[in-house]
Design a protein that fits this description.
about 260 residues, alpha+beta, five-stranded mixed β-sheet, globular
């Protein structure tokens, strides 16, 4: 009986080694159902599955269905999903709502990320000239099972008159927007797996467009949130290879040993 158990153990070890040797890597996808961005004065900027008003009166992003991101896929959230010209188009401007940190909660998870410089322009409610454009800044990760989310914030500003991040307009280098290599263009379609946002027109408060055209609704004055689905940490392929090969050798040696002593 003891010999039979030993043989079964050797066979199991050999099979486990072969499984690790040939098993393919498994990818995951991340699902986003809600986001709550809260300014320091308590104003909420909400997004969720359902028509506008589903998750509150300040719902500015509406998801027809839960957003599913592949590994390394991105969701970018900005202003004016409804594509309205005029003042209502600038609906994601946390710098108008207090000088304290802006917090972000995704899927209602207990991890809360906080930003005190980008989304609220250091707590300053800017006037017509100052430009709030800011490149993407990493806030941190949210451990959303099965894979974590990386959360970055930036600011798109082609509305204000002063120079953008690098002193040029969006047509030259896109640096009125969060990232020169990420084509956050005037129609809001570039680069992301899912992009929710749209340019706007004249805000109706005495602005003279700095780097955009009111008539064609190409103006941005918007916080920007980029959420990236990160791959789950898994063993290196070389590690799995060595482990599998080692178990196969061990199993083969055990079988020979048992045969020799049977």
């Amino acid at each position: 009986m003891r010999k039979r158990i030993s043989v079964l153990g050797a066979v199991a070890t050999l099979m486990l080694g072969m499984t690790l040797f040939i098993a393919p890597s498994i990818g995951h996808a991340g699902t986003i159902t809600s986001i709550d961005v809260t300014a320091s004065d308590g104003t909420h900027f909400l997004g969720c599955v359902g028509p506008f008003g589903t998750c509150g009166p300040r719902q500015i992003w509406s998801f027809a269905i839960p957003i599913v991101l592949p590994v390394n896929g991105t969701l970018v959230l900005a202003q004016n999903q409804r594509q309205q010209a005029g003042a209502l188009g600038y609906d994601f401007d946390p710098s108008d709502h207090g000088a304290g940190p802006v917090t972000i909660v995704i899927n209602g998870l207990p991890t809360i990320l906080s930003d005190s410089t980008v989304l609220n322009f250091h707590g300053a409610d800017v006037q017509n000239q100052a430009n709030e454009a800011h490149l993407y800044t990493v806030l941190g990760t949210i451990p959303n099972p099965p894979d974590p989310f990386l959360v970055e914030v930036g600011y798109a500003d082609s509305l204000h008159e002063n120079a953008c991040v690098n002193g040029a307009g969006p047509d030259a280098s896109h640096l009125c927007f969060p990232n020169a290599t990420f084509p956050f263009d005037n129609v809001g379609t570039g680069g992301a797996t899912v992009f929710i946002g749209h340019g706007a027109g004249d805000p109706g408060v005495g602005f003279t467009a700095g780097h955009c055209v009111f008539a064609t609704s190409t103006c941005w004055d918007s916080g920007v949130i980029r959420i990236t689905e990160l791959p789950k940490a898994v063993p290196e392929p070389s590690t799995l290879f060595l482990l599998g090969a080692g178990l196969m050798v061990l199993g083969s040696y055990a079988r020979k040993f048992l045969k020799r002593n049977s």
